[in-house]
Amino acid sequence: MQPLKNLSAAFVLILAATVTAAAAEKALPPPAADEPASSGGSEIAVLAGGCFWGVQGVFQHVKGVTNAVSGYAGGAAQTAQYETVSGGDTGHAESVQVTFDPKQITYGQILQVFFSVAHDPTELNRQGPDHGTQYRSAIFPANEAQAEVAKKYIAQLDAAHVFRKPIVTKIEMGKSFYPAEAYHQDFLVRHPYYPYIVFNDLPKIESLKKLLPDFYRDKPVLVAGNS
């Protein structure tokens, strides 16, 4: 990726706003079946929806999220490196481990954000310009309760025909998450003028703000601040 050249920051933001206008027009309904509100400690959701820069960036702006780490899930520990995963044959998907406070946001609401603005769940083994199984839409439940919420929510959205095509998101149990390299963390925040970020990811943040304002917070929670 190369930074934008010969373009002002203001013009870059105008381009981002233009792309945002083509984003989803309304938020998806919340899950009819969700985990009960909890007074316990943190919970974790692991989600894959294309390049992890944008998915991480979205959840860093979600209220109740205390950390969002880019990484890999679906394959073995020894292949959880960017250059290897990029080959598309490791079983890994670029993923984000979202740590959240269940007193503030539920697992089902995390999925509502995921399906509403973080990615397009009808694209098979791709997102936008990225192609390959490493960019698949997938959910890696931490337990059977999360898996049940995810299955029922996908069925609910498909039955309501909220998308023009069927949801292709895979639910993959028993997979470990491996954090990505440091240079991938907080990438959207650190490189807001990269062309890829401008055209593919900043619109997601704007959609979160517009479509799910109750979930949105202006100041992102950063991996750097959690280390």
Give the topology, please.
Blueprint: H1 9-20, E1 43-49, H2 52-60, E2 65-73, H3 82-85, E3 93-100, H4 107-118, E4 126-127, E5 130-131, E6 137-140, H5 144-160, E7 170-171, E8 177-179, H6 187-190, H7 195-211, H8 223-226
Parallel strand pairs: 6-7
Antiparallel strand pairs: 1-3, 1-6, 2-3, 2-8, 4-5
Structure overview:
This protein has 227 residues and is of the alpha+beta class. The chain has one domain (31-226): Peptide Methionine Sulfoxide Reductase, Chain A, CATH 3.30.1060. It contains eight helices and eight strands; from the N terminus they run αβαβαβαβββαββααα. The chain has helices at 9-20, 52-60, 82-85, 107-118, 144-160, 187-190, 195-211, 223-226, and strands spanning 43-49, 65-73, 93-100, 126-127, 130-131, 137-140, 170-171, 177-179. It has a six-stranded mixed β-sheet with strand order 7-6-1-3-2-8. Helix 5 links the parallel strand 6 (137-140) and strand 7 (170-171). Helix 1 crosses helix 7 (195-211), helix 2 (52-60) packs across helix 4 and helix 2 (52-60) runs parallel beside helix 7. The chain is globular.
Strand segment count: 8
CATH architecture: 2-Layer Sandwich
Number of domains: 1
Over all CA atoms, what is the radius of gyration?
Answer: 16 Å
Mean pLDDT: 90
CATH superfamily: Peptide methionine sulphoxide reductase MsrA
Overall 3D shape: globular
Q: How many strands, which pairing sense, and closed or not: the largest β-sheet?
A: 6 strands, mixed
Strands of the largest sheet, in order across it? Answer: 7-6-1-3-2-8
The residue fraction in helices comes out at 25-40%
The structural class is: alpha+beta
